[in-house]
């Protein structure tokens, strides 16, 4: 979990570097509100305005953690997709290499008996 008592510039740099861009704006806005509310707590109290700073901070942390988990999942998906693509390309090449000598040495009528459904 992040400690929001740290310098807001450091926090913004961390968010810019590591946070999913979709979540950057709402987190930044909420963090800005938290900072502003903390500096003007006495003014807000005089007006009877209560802002749940702890809840805002907790939700920011939760969103950051969920975003980080999403980034990890997306990276794993990207790797799995690349592996599947490579396997597909290898399978296509192997299939083509395997059926080619059969097609060259047997008439088209016999291809189906070897499991080849090509017409040409």
Primary descriptors:
120 residues; 5 helices
What would you note in describing this structure?
- This protein is mainly α and 120 residues long.
- It has one domain.
- It has five helices and no strands.
- The longest helix is centred in the middle third of the chain and has 53 residues, at 53-105.
- It is rod-shaped and about 95 Å long.
- It starts with 7 loop residues before the first helix and ends in a 9-residue tail after the last helix.
- The mean pLDDT is 88.
Tally of alpha and pi helices: 5
- Number of structurally distinct domains: 1
Q: Catalogue the unreliable spans.
A: none
Order of helices and strands: HHHHH
Q: What is the molecular shape?
A: rod-shaped
Question: Strand share of the residues?
Answer: under 5%
Mean pLDDT: 88
Write a brief caption for the model.
The protein has 120 residues and is mostly helical.
Write the layout of secondary structure elements.
Blueprint (H helix, E strand, L loop, with lengths): L7 H11 L2 H19 L1 H6 L6 H53 L2 H4 L9
Helix pairs in contact: 1-2, 2-4
